[in-house]
Design a protein that fits this description.
The longest helix is centred in the last third of the chain and has 26 residues, at 366-391. The strands form 4 sheets. The chain has a 7-stranded mixed beta sheet with strand order 1-9-8-7-4-2-3, sandwiched between helices. It has a 3-stranded antiparallel beta sheet with strand order 12-13-14, with no helix packed on it. It has a two-stranded antiparallel ribbon with strand order 5-6. It has helices spanning 44-60, 75-87, 100-112, 209-217, 251-266, 270-290, 316-319, 323-339, 366-391, and strands at 68-73, 93-97, 118-122, 139-143, 145-146, 151-152, 167-170, 187-191, 202-207, 231-232, 235-236, 294-296, 308-313, 356-359. It is of the alpha/beta class. The protein folds into 2 domains: 35-266, Type I PLP-dependent aspartate aminotransferase-like (Major domain) (Aspartate Aminotransferase, domain 2); 270-391, Aspartate Aminotransferase, domain 1 (Alpha-Beta Complex). Strand 10 and strand 11 form a beta hairpin.
Length: 392
């Protein structure tokens, strides 16, 4: 075994999964006692609950007054698919992909919608594509904050205000966790189970007036399934943005989202949420800069995700091993952390380079991040010592 001293302080919570993420501090099932279960979601009180959730999303995110918020089926994936199936096809499309989800949107655009005028901007994990090469005469589809790669766009300065096309941004691990220049986005999507620590199954779609006008003026050439349609009888379905969901929502999910939004308000709203993320990331960044074992998967410091922190191993002992040996090391390290009741569910995304992925979103206490970090180095040293002893 290693001679490193075991850290004395464990995180109060072992939950660092990137999704579903940890519930807000102090959460219990009692938070759902007022849920409108057993009711028609179209009855007065349940519909009012859905509208309250929409209103609070709008308020906490500090959206422009003329942006619209709707709750839709299928989590963030459903919301992105809704945007693509309902809005794309009027003009060409530029698609950015630097990790699994950007590649997924590209595959759907090419293989399912079968659009022909498609420009692709692809980069390997850890990198961004060249943002200056994007054609904003086209519609542009991208992820604001790549959860699987821990790579985000640095800001919105690369997006022109006078663009002709729409910008469609998968923003699920960015909303409620970082500043987003809303005037740069025509469509943004997220799911409750990311920064709000909510439950899955439902997504949220945010539309600018330009996106709403696209729905009213353009009809796709393909049949659009009901659950992916923003239109009704050829025009924007405004009821979708006033509490009348396309299909039956879970009122437990709605109540849970309201509870998280009330918690956000108690912190001072968006600035309070971002302050927690910034505090956690400052701790993480200082540790990474001094760790002999880990570095960010993101190459450019300006593009490191503050929420979905993806780590790679930089120790030469690890690098010189073959792939199967590396997998065994990571599996053993994760088992040690779980056995010590320090951290669970921190594996890298299945298609991403081997490493660890630590969620540092608003619901995670910065104190837990501070407690976790020395354990990551200790567990790595323990794993290395075990492997070297077995090889001797």
């Amino acid at each position: 075994m290693s001679t490193n001293a075991k850290p004395l302080i464990r995180p109060a919570s072992t939950l660092f999964s990137t999704g579903p993420t940890r519930k807000r501090p102090g959460w219990s099932p009692l938070a759902l006692e007022q849920a409108a279960v057993g009711r028609s979601h179209r009855a007065v009180e349940p519909k009012a609950k859905i509208q309250t959730c929409i209103t609070k999303i709008h308020s906490v995110l500090q959206l422009p007054a003329n942006y619209m918020v709707g709750i839709v089926p299928g989590s963030d994936t459903g919301a992105v698919e809704m945007a693509m199936w309902s809005l794309l096809g009027e003009r060409g499309v530029d698609v950015l992909g630097w990790e699994a989800f950007g590649h997924l949107w590209l595959a759907d655009i090419v293989n399912q919608l079968q659009l022909k005028n498609v420009n692709t901007h692809i980069a390997d994990y850890g990198h961004l594509p060249d943002l200056s090469s994007v054609n904003f005469d086209n519609d542009v589809v991208f992820t604001w904050n790549g959860t699987a790669a821990g790579v985000r766009v640095p800001d919105g300065n690369w997006i022109p205000d006078n663009r002709a096309g729409l910008t469609i941004a998968d923003s699920t691990s960015a909303c409620f966790a970082m500043e987003i220049p809303w005037e740069k986005l025509d469509v943004a999507t997220f799911s409750f189970q990311k920064s709000l620590g909510g439950e899955g199954g439902h997504g949220v779609i945010i539309l600018s007036p330009r996106a709403a006008e696209r729905v009213n003026s353009y009809t796709p050439l393909w049949p659009v399934p009901k659950v992916l349609s923003l239109a009704k009888k050829g025009k924007l379905d405004v009821n979708l943005f006033s509490g009348l969901t396309i299909n039956t929502p879970s009122m437990l999910v709605i109540e849970d989202a309201i509870d998280s939004l009330l918690w956000a308000e108690s912190l001072g709203g968006l600035q309070g949420l971002i302050a927690r993320v910034d505090a956690s990331f400052a701790l993480m960044n200082n540790w990474v800069m001094n760790s002999p074992n880990y570095s960010y998967l993101a190459v450019d410091p300006a593009t490191v995700s503050q929420t979905s922190v993806c780590l790679r191993f930089i120790d030469e002992w690890f690098i010189q091993m073959d792939g199967e040996q590396q997998k065994a090391v990571v599996k053993n390290l994760e088992a040690i952390l779980a056995a010590e009741e320090v951290a669970i569910d921190i594996s890298s995304y299945r298609d991403a380079p081997l490493g660890l992925r630590i969620w540092c979103g608003p619901t995670v206490d910065p104190a837990d991040v501070a407690a976790l970090l020395p354990w990551l180095d200790w567990a790595y040293a323990e794993t290395r010592a075990q492997c070297q002893a077995n090889a001797a």
